[in-house]
Automatic annotation (TrEMBL):
The keyword Transmembrane applies. Keywords: Membrane, Transmembrane, Transmembrane helix. Pfam families: DUF3159. The chain crosses the membrane at residues 58-76, 83-99, 119-141, 162-182, 188-210. It comes from Streptoalloteichus tenebrarius (strain ATCC 17920 / DSM 40477 / JCM 4838 / CBS 697.72 / NBRC 16177 / NCIMB 11028 / NRRL B-12390 / A12253. 1 / ISP 5477). Residues 1-10 have a biased composition (Basic and acidic residues). Residues 1-21 are annotated as: Disordered. This is DUF3159 domain-containing protein. It comes from the Bacteria.
Length: 226
């Protein structure tokens, strides 16, 4: 998952007990709060850019201001300082790139690079049998690597991880053509549409895959079988 996904906090309804714990994947990993936060600086950038007669410096200043507000809010609600700093750093780098090139659409290059790297990382993790969904959930459940000794869980995490690969590929399939066309406003709209709604959908679908793949009678994610 990229940072938006791994740090997100969604308030989705609990899944049925068929998964073994009565919890949803969204409840185990958090929800979509941080994913919503991540959309604010890009929206602020495009809004400032438009209101200032397509001024990239004004757009960059608006994005940095929005990023600072989000950072303070996240700190006050108890988010990890490291995650907050990384989020603010991402906004700052995106703003610097746009200022350097003078093109508003280049503000979104960091996001596109992040999605490309995330898609590659998730795909490689599946191939080497260390699916990142298992790593993330296992860490959240404090299982270390016990989940890897359960063949059923390893297979379920591997198949469900492909859902996350698809998430990043879908974003790239939308973002890259819009960036190439210089459509900054459309990129901003796509960024919002493909952030928290897509994260919520990805959580739901990957949770469904986990439930479908685990054999009947398996105790669930919290109880790996040796």
């Amino acid at each position: 998952m990229d940072r938006e996904a791994t740090e997100s906090r969604a308030d989705q309804p609990p899944a049925p007990a068929a998964a073994g714990s009565g919890e949803s994947l969204a409840q185990l990993l958090g929800g979509r709060g941080a994913a919503v936060d991540a959309t604010l600086p890009p929206v602020a950038f495009v809004a400032g850019w438009l209101l200032a007669d397509e001024s990239v410096p004004v757009g960059a200043a608006a994005a940095l201001a929005a990023g600072a507000v989000v950072a303070v809010w996240r700190l006050t609600r108890g988010d990890r300082p490291r995650a907050v700093v990384l989020g603010m750093l991402g906004v700052a780098v995106a703003a610097m790139i746009a200022l350097r090139t003078g093109r508003a659409v280049d503000f979104f290059l960091v996001q596109m690079a992040s999605n490309a790297a995330s898609a590659l990382a998730w795909a490689v993790s599946i191939v080497i049998r260390w699916p990142l969904l298992g790593v993330v959930v296992g860490t959240a459940l404090r299982q270390r690597t016990r989940w890897r000794r359960d063949p059923a869980l390893l297979r379920a995490y591997s198949l469900a991880s492909w859902v996350w690969v698809g998430q990043y590929v879908l974003r790239l399939a939308v973002f890259v053509p819009l960036w190439w066309a210089g459509a900054a406003v459309a990129l901003s709209v796509a960024r919002v549409a493909l952030t928290w709604p897509l994260v919520a959908a990805c959580l739901a679908v990957s949770w469904w895959v986990l439930r479908r793949v685990l054999p009947e009678g398996h105790p669930g994610l919290r109880q790996p079988l040796a």
